[in-house]
Amino acid sequence: MTGRDPSKHLASTETDVGGRSARLGAVAIVSTVVQMTIGISTSLVLVRLIEPEDYGIYWMGAAVLLLSVAVRDLGIGVAVVNADELTTDRTSGMFWTAAGASLTVAALLAALGPVLAVVYGEPLLVQLMPVLGGVALLNGLGAVHDGLLKRRLRFVSVACRDVGGMLAGSIAAIATAAADYGFWALAAQQAALASVGLVILLAACPWVPAGLGALRRTLASHA
Q: Digits of tens for pLDDT over the chain (223 positions)?
């Protein structure tokens, strides 16, 4: 059975919804508590390792990254969850649309580096913004796979992605900060979170999109 098999990855899970809802609620609570614990613990360590000015440099760029989240994948992950029916072509079309949107956002963030460097008078933003653009791209590439997992009520896998990514980000941040790389520790945190989170997501949902022809066929069917 291949990763493109719609019967395995694209079908929704409808059986025993009531029973599973209770278990999934417990998973969500545990995941949230674990993430909060990791986040707070990491922040307490980083605040002793990173200078306030380094936080300032990072957030000059990261503020734009947060704004990009709203348009990163065009809400395609939600569309995957709520779709009445998914075919390989339709899902692949959504994947390539999300990938294109994420790549565009990544390129724009990288291009903003010199602009923000002039606005804030901080030349290091020229180096930081392409890294944050890469983070946005990685996050967007997992939108459809995230939606497929949630569609099949596989929230344990989603929780593993969230916790695993956050733990990897915390380790990367603390290690980089301990090596005295300043604001790069915060960038490393986001890069590790996105990278490891995407790897876990793809391992949990090894669906493989069809080629770009699927996007053309999907657009033609709605023309």
A: 445 554 456 655 555 556 666 777 888 899 999 999 999 999 999 999 999 999 999 999 998 888 777 666 678 888 898 888 888 888 998 899 889 989 999 999 999 999 999 999 999 999 999 999 999 999 989 999 999 999 888 989 999 999 999 999 999 999 999 999 999 999 999 999 999 999 999 999 999 998 877 667 766 665 5
User: Rounded to an integer, what distance in angstroms lies between the CA atom of residue 164 and that of residue 162?
Assistant: 6
CA distance 209 to 223: 22
Q: Are 146 and 162 in contact (CB under 8 A)?
A: no
Q: Rounded to a whole number, what is the largest CA-CA distance in the chain?
A: 58
